[in-house]
Amino acid sequence: MAFPAKYPSLNDTALTEEARSTLIRVIRVAFPHDSFPDGPYERTADTILKAAEESTWFRVSLTQGLLTLAHLAGGDFRQLDEDAATSVLRRIETTEFFGFIRRTTVLNLYDDPEVWDAVGYEGPSVDKGGYIDRGFNDLDWLPDPRIETYTGEPIVEIARSVPLAPPHAATHGGGQSAASTSADTSTQPGATDARQGQLQHSEATK
């Protein structure tokens, strides 16, 4: 890691107006919103610079990152067009410098009242009595839902058939099995008469 005390150019770059404007450009490219005014981007950059003033680690990361941007841009990063600037940022997206900017921007850029106005967000409602009496059901910013009545054939659900118990399955309550029940039918009167008829026929043919 390069320390400002060893490399004076880091001190020359850090926390200057040039560094601030470069940082604003970085945030604009990384978080592009045509409808956002300059104010939120500028205040987010100031928040990053303030955090860098309070932390040596962030300050060194910031100054090194800005020097790296200038090197990769072949001069002034602020002069690059959108595509070229995006390509440069993609090359440093895994660095501590860009991670520091990304984290701070996400937490601050979208918490700016000017950004809320730009996207149509009314902001917190606690100090205004909540949403119940302030258009709780006012969703005019959403498209009207499409409601259609089904006019086709009635939809009939076919019930799934319930499988029967296998023949060898025992009956509930300790009863006989299906197989033993079938065997017991041989003792019924009709079965006895049929068996006697078969015996008489066999005797006659002997």
TrEMBL record:
Residues 166-206 are annotated as: Disordered. Residues 195-206 have a biased composition (Polar residues). It comes from the Bacteria. Residues 177-188 have a biased composition (Low complexity). This is Gluconate 2-dehydrogenase subunit 3 family protein.
